[in-house]
Design goal:
It is a single chain. It contains eight helices and eight strands, in the order ααβββαβαβαβαβαβα. By secondary structure, it is an alpha/beta fold. α3 (116-125) links the parallel β3 (93-98) and β4. The radius of gyration is 19 Å and the shape is globular. The two termini are 31 Å apart.
Length: 300
C-alpha cells in the first residue's frame, strides 16, 4: 500500500459545515480513537492530527545505479536501484528497501516520496556507519509468492541478493526496511532469513491485519495464504534480530501495529506519534530509522 490518505473515507456526514463541523469532528475523533469508526487516516488529516511533514535534506546524494533484470521468479522484467553514501568505496553492507502497494523501486529515492538517498547522505555525514540502500520492484504481491506465479519473495532472495553481491555489496548479512506493504514484507523476510542473515529490520506503518476477512482485496490468495504468511503472533521468529516498528497515530494500521509491538518479550525500537499513512510521516522518521539500521548493522 502506498499513501493511504483519502482511500478509506466513510460516513462523510460526520463533518458538516459551520459549528456543526466542530461538534461532529470531535465526536468522530472520539470514535476513531477507539477504532469504532473507519476512515481514521482521512479524519486525522482533516482535524490536523498528522504532525509535521518530513523534509528531504538539501544535500548531494552519493553514487546511484539502476537497471532492470529479467526475473524468472516474477515472470517479467524487474527494476532496481542502489544508492551509496557520498565518498563510500569498497564493500559496503546493504539495506534492502521494500516499497508500498502501487509503488515501485523508484519510490525509495524519489524526493516526492521518501528521498532515502539524500537521507542516507545526511545520516552518514552525521556519523552513522556507512551502508548502501537497494530497492527492487515487488508489484502488489505483498512481498510473498503468489498462486498466480508472481513470486516476489523468491525474486528477492534468489535473484536480487545475488545481483547486489555481483555489484560488490556484502549480502552475507543484510538490513531490511519497508513501509506499508513493504513493512509487512520486511518483517516477513527477516523471519524467513533469521538473525544469522538479518541483523536489523525496520517496519514503517506495516500493513498488518488480525484476520483474513479484514485484509485488503488482493493482498492474499485466500485464508490459507494469509495464515501461512502473517507475522501476527509470530514475533518469536525475530528473536536475535534488532527490530524497529513505527506507526502514526492517525494510521489505519495503528491498532494492529500496537498489538504487534506489544507481542514482543522485549519491546522493539521505534514507537507511535502523530502521523498519517503517507510519505510525509515516513520522511519525518527517516533519520532515526537510518541511524537505527546503520548502528545495528555495524554492531553485528
Amino acid at each position: 500500500m502506498g499513501d493511504a490518505r483519502g482511500t478509506r473515507i466513510s460516513r462523510r456526514g460526520l463533518l458538516l459545515g459551520g459549528t456543526g463541523a466542530a461538534v461532529a469532528g470531535g465526536a468522530a475523533l472520539a470514535g476513531i480513537e477507539t477504532e469504532v469508526l473507519p476512515g481514521r487516516a482521512w479524519l486525522y488529516h482533516r482535524l490536523g492530527r498528522d504532525g509535521a511533514e518530513g523534509v528531504v535534506p538539501d544535500v548531494e546524494a552519493g553514487a546511484f545505479a539502476s537497471g532492470t533484470f529479467a526475473s524468472r521468479a516474477r515472470g517479467k522484467d524487474v527494476g532496481w536501484a542502489i544508492s551509496r553514501p557520498p565518498g563510500a568505496t569498497g564493500t559496503l553492507p546493504v539495506v534492502v528497501a521494500l516499497h508500498g502497494r502501487r509503488q515501485d523501486h523508484t519510490s525509495a529515492f524519489r524526493p516526492d516520496r521518501l528521498g532515502l538517498d539524500r537521507f542516507l547522505a545526511a545520516a552518514v555525514a552525521d556519523g552513522v556507519p556507512p551502508f548502501a540502500i537497494a530497492s527492487v520492484d515487488g508489484g502488489d504481491s505483498y512481498w510473498h509468492d503468489r498462486a498466480d506465479g508472481d513470486h516476489a519473495s523468491t525474486m528477492v532472495i534468489d535473484e536480487f541478493l545475488p545481483l547486489l553481491a555481483d555489484h560488490g555489496f556484502d549480502t552475507r548479512r543484510i538490513g531490511l526496511l519497508g513501509w506499508s506493504m513493504g513493512g509487512f514484507g520486511a518483517l516477513r523476510f527477516a523471519s524467513l532469513l533469521g538473525p544469522d542473515r538479518v541483523p536489523a529490520v525496520a517496519a514503517l506503518s506495516p500493513a498488518l491485519w488480525r484476520e483474513y476477512d479484514d485484509t485488503a482485496p488482493g493482498a492474499y490468495d485466500d485464508e490459507a495464504d494469509f495464515d501461512a504468511t502473517t507475522v501476527m503472533g509470530r514475533q518469536q521468529d525475530l528473536d536475535g534480530i534488532a527490530v524497529r516498528v513505527d506507526c502514526g497515530e492517525g494510521d489505519p494500521f495503528y491498532a494492529t501495529s500496537k498489538e504487534y509491538v506489544e507481542g514482543f518479550d522485549r519491546r522493539p525500537a521505534g514507537g507511535f506519534e502523530l502521523g498519517d499513512h503517507d510519505s510525509g510521516y515516513w520522511r519525518r522518521i527517516a533519520p532515526s530509522v537510518l541511524a537505527f539500521l546503520g548502528g545495528a548493522i555495524a554492531q553485528r
